[in-house]
Design brief:
Elements (H helix, E strand, L loop, with lengths): L30 E9 H9 L6 H19 L9 E7 L13 E7 L7 H22 L1 H6 L6 H13 L12 E6 L7 E2 L2 E2 L15 E8 L2 E9 L6 H20 L2
Parallel strand pairs: 2-4, 4-7
Antiparallel strand pairs: 1-8, 2-3, 5-6, 7-8
Length: 257
């Protein structure tokens, strides 16, 4: 039996209110990194437990579950779902296979308020479908091209003022963190005869967005890496353990579906 996605044609809606967390304040110049790797076959089994779900849905649900565990242990879990900025292709069907970066983003509620792992996967799938539909309705190219209308000097001045005045501590966050998923090669790569045995990613953070997850697949594995500020995430190894523990929960849950 498969869980139904529960998504049907409906009025598009926003992702909801973004709750403020420790990841939405000012950052320092110090960084921490960690992560975990999982077998792609296991991820496919998890996403196949629900009709229509994708690998990206499963990984978004995994990140949401890891954050739920981490913040609950800190007694900081918000009542409302945390919101992630997830990458989405900006290519139209006619632009398939073309070169260059054509990437936009969408906001997805990751169901951090939901304890059950499969219920969270269903929630993430519905939210991702809604966000993709909104992106298509607005046009990803429109969202990326609008920045060309803003003079670079004005944008730089605004960014500098935002940082120097510490406005991240006073403004409503647009999102809680970023999740970027990059499909990689499934055959070994070599450099000067040496085989690359694993690939992980690093990402930039900024005031108001102090956590980014980079998801990269390579040779049958999917690596979930994260970058944060040392003062905001002082125990990256514990957060990595939370991600692993929730993945184990998801595996146990799909086995019962």
């Amino acid at each position: 039996m498969k869980l139904g996605a529960g998504f049907s044609t409906q009025k598009l809606k926003a992702s909801g209110v973004v709750p403020r967390t420790r990841f939405n304040g000012k950052i320092t110049g110090h960084r921490v990194n960690d992560g975990r790797s999982f077998a792609i076959d296991d991820v496919k089994k998890i996403k196949n437990a629900m009709s229509g779900a994708t690998i990206n849905d499963a990984m978004l649900a995994l990140v949401g579950g890891g954050l739920r565990r981490y913040l609950k242990a800190k007694d900081e879990l918000p009542r409302d779902s945390m919101i992630a900025m997830a990458t989405v292709s900006g290519r139209s069907s006619a632009q398939g296979g073309t070169a260059g970066n054509q990437v936009s983003g969408m906001l997805v509620a990751l169901g951090t308020h939901i304890a059950d792992p499969m219920e969270r996967l269903a929630h993430v799938h519905r939210e991702a479908q809604n966000s993709k539909a909104m992106t298509a309705a607005i046009s990803a190219r429109t969202m990326t091209d609008y920045s060309q209308l803003i003079p670079s000097s004005l944008a730089a001045l605004a960014a500098r003022m935002y940082t120097e005045m510490g406005l991240a501590d006073y403004t409503t966050p647009v999102m809680n963190y970023v999740v970027t998923n990059v499909p990689g090669p499934q055959r070994p790569l070599y450099f000067a005869g040496a085989e690359a045995v694993k690939m992980v990613g690093l990402g930039p953070i900024q005031d108001g967005m102090a956590l980014i997850h980079t998801i990269f697949s390579y040779c049958g594995e999917i690596a979930v890496s994260f970058t944060s500020c040392r003062e905001i995430l002082p125990d990256p190894e514990f957060y990595a353990e939370c991600i692993q523990a929730f993945f184990d929960e998801m595996k146990a849950a799909y086995a019962q579906v």
